[in-house]
Amino acid sequence: MNLNIPNILTLTRIAAIPVFVLVFYLPFSWANMATAAIFAFAGFTDWLDGYLARKLNQTSRFGAFLDPVADKLMVAVALILLVAADPGPWLAIPAAIIIGREIAISALREWMAQIGERAQVAVSYIGKIKTTAQMLALFLLLYREPLSELPVYEVGLVLLYVAAALTLWSMIIYLRAAWPLLNGDNTKENNE
Q1: Considering 29, 34, 44, 108, which has the largest number of Cβ atoms within 10 A of its Cβ?
Q2: What letter would DSSP give residue 121?
Q3: CB count, 10 Å around CB of 159?
């Protein structure tokens, strides 16, 4: 394991998840703001670890593996907490779409890597837009409190639906790229 600055930031993001959950359930008026701040910190460290890995030439296989795991864990935990706090279809549907897509695309990437075609399902530009909308939506949903006349929670919910739509779109892009291999003749693969 290569413990450089980017990897330490990623591990810090994972270590923050139990704190994030604990703060979410605190019975204090400032808990929403603190939870949103922890989530924002996680998002910032996600950007920072990638930036530093490139800038300091500290990319590693361990970091390439751990970074998306940390991101997906934080997003999945945030979505689960939000649905638990506000059970109902309006939040559960986009949460299920986002989590389901992450599981499906992770499995697709793993399978593509096993057959030596990982580049076919590399992160796309639409995936980056989806991630930005998703992170902003989750931040607003966690914050919850209106800011002056701005209905923060409702804006977050709309953005979560935008993120869910982009999630489906990016999944279709990935599946279309992989479809020739998914649909291809696998007799050689079965004989091995």
Answers
A1: 108
A2: G
A3: 21
The CA–CA distances, whole Å, from 159 to 75, 155, 174, 176, 185 equal 14, 6, 22, 25, 41
Q: How many residues does the chain have?
A: 192
Name the burial class of residue 94, with classes exposed (0-12), middle (13-18) and buried (19+) by CB atoms within 10 angstroms of its CB. buried
If one compares 36 and 129, the residue with the highest pLDDT of the two is: 36
Q: Which amino acid is at 130?
A: K
Q: How many CB atoms lie within 10 A of CB 114?
A: 10
pLDDT band at 68 (very low <50, low <70, confident <90, very high): confident
Is residue 157's pLDDT more than 90? yes
Q: Determine if the pTM surpasses 0.85.
A: yes
Alpha-carbon distance values, 41 to 1, 85, 105 (Å): 24, 22, 26
Which amino acid is located at 2 in the chain? Answer: N
Three-state DSSP state, 55: helix
